[in-house]
């Protein structure tokens, strides 16, 4: 039997949504780890992959979010072990920070991003699963 994936959540409104559905459709079990309620993370040898969801904090907001250093360390161990890992928004920042890449703070809590190129919407954009996932599908 395939090991379940871990889905790390930072706020109640950023759950697995579309990614949970995609995993389930492929017969992959997953366990949610809501770090906003408890700081528990799984043992590395107990999971088959990792999805780290978003949240309004930045990847280096360790003073207000004391679990973040543990999460960055956990992400690094996952990647170093060769397990698949997907970071969404804050999760991508945490992945970058785990390997020493810079992230920067924005003007507001939800403006903290890893710098990225500007993109233009095409006719196929609204039908793209990624456009839909980020704007509507990640929120419960």
UniProtKB/TrEMBL annotation:
Protein name: Glutamine amidotransferase class-I
UniProt-recorded Gene Ontology molecular function terms: transferase activity
Region (Disordered): 116-140
Any Pfam family the entry gives: GATase
Lineage summary: Bacteria, Bacillati, Actinomycetota, Actinomycetes, Mycobacteriales
Keywords: Glutamine amidotransferase, Transferase
Gene3D superfamilies linked to this entry: 3.40.50.880
Organism domain of life: Bacteria
Keyword presence, Transferase: yes
Segments forming domain Glutamine amidotransferase: 37-111
